[in-house]
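Run: sequence + adenosine-5'-triphosphate -> complex structure.
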Amino acid sequence: MDIKPAISSLDTIVSLAKRRGFIFPSSEIYGGLSSCYDYGPLGAQLKRNIKDAWWREMVQKRQNIVGLDASIIMHPRVWEASGHVAGFTDPLVECKKCGARLRQDHLPEGGVKCSKDGKLCEFGEPRMFNLMFRTHLGPLEDTSSLVYLRPETAQGIFVNFGNVIDSTRVKLPFGIAQQGKSFRNEITTRHFTFRTCEFEQMEMEFFCEPGTELEWFEYWKTERLNWFTNLGVTPERLRLRPHAADELAHYSNACVDVEYLFPNGWSELEGIASRTDYDLKKHSEYSGKKLLWKDQQTGAAFTPYVIEPALGTDRALLTFLIDAYKEEEIEGNPRTVLSFHPRIAPIKAAVFPLLKKDGQPEKAQEIFATLSDRYQAVYDDSGSIGRRYRRQDEVGTPVCITVDHQTMEDQTVTLRDRDSLEQVRVKIEALSGTLFEKFGF
Ligand code: ATP
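>> structure
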């Protein structure tokens, strides 16, 4: 089957995101700041739900994975040990005519139009540019106080390996997971929130016995792909792209990208890498502290191998937004709908009184209060019922609950399903059970 992106242009999502409060340009009243974005009311909730869904799947449901929340600023030696100070670089080229600076490996085929003369840019030799943001800890701005904003969350996990095994009862194989901000001074940021300088990551390091790592690598490939499809991403728009031998880092013995079919083509959504014992060994060497796993039965001590699934939270959010977007026609009327999986939908339920009288608003408020104690719901009494449905469809609310005159007589409400458009009447006392059965919340 010839599978197409869910939308033909990212502009569709950029404008919906702005209009409905998912994502705004940062510092917009000052003209915006290139490549920085702010999550609006619905975006903040959506992001929270995505992070919760990941945490639930990766930590909460598993007995052998624990969580961590390391600081963004770490000892600068961490980044020397990890290789980031010396090697976390991209090739930067500059046009001799207009001064445009671009990443050499991101240059489009056919060249770039020069803003000076309209011909093609003429780039000089590439310079290696380190992507780490630098700052200073304390009042002195000299090399002794130089620190970095972390470019990935993973190293916070490796340096806490010893603390975690000393303070918990984990047994090999086990994982340590964390979510948090990362910073990269990207030369070219583009495609909305796909590549930005400040972003969030959700990473897990899965430590295992050397020799078993490729089995675990296969396991995590399947698990991670399933996470996206279980949350409603179209399976045909996901694929695994194994890295070729010449693409692999020297310490890695397998790596795959989970790719999604974005409007601009297939691109990396998540990376899954088998990183051998490289990171733990490097930190042992640089810190002088042994980072070993000791087998209780045999007494043998060794450095575990590691599999790392690393996902960008913002890129995941962009994927969920794009994949959920649909324009449909219902009984001759157009509607825009975000068909979010109920688990990640920012608003789970909207409660409406049909009329602003006869006790209907009060009854609807009562239902709202019960539901909003458990999750994000909204109360809306403005405009026609049809318009209220459209408003909720456009932000992906799975169910609308309407209180009408019949409610006041028999204590029933109407549930309207976003996707099937089916409407059913249920008793208020059975509402929670029905919502849980139908939508899982
Ligand atoms: P690339 O090669 O595209 O620069 P990468 O392979 O270096 O990315 P990783 O270091 O593997 O990326 O990071 C893991 C994940 O973090 C990526 O799959 C992506 O989802 C996310 N990520 C990385 N860099 C950015 C960024 N600048 N903006 C948003 N998300 C990012």
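>> summary
The pocket of adenosine-5'-triphosphate is lined by residues 152, 184, 186, 195-196, 199, 201, 268-271, 310-312, 314-315 (CB under 6 Å). The radius of gyration is 25 Å.
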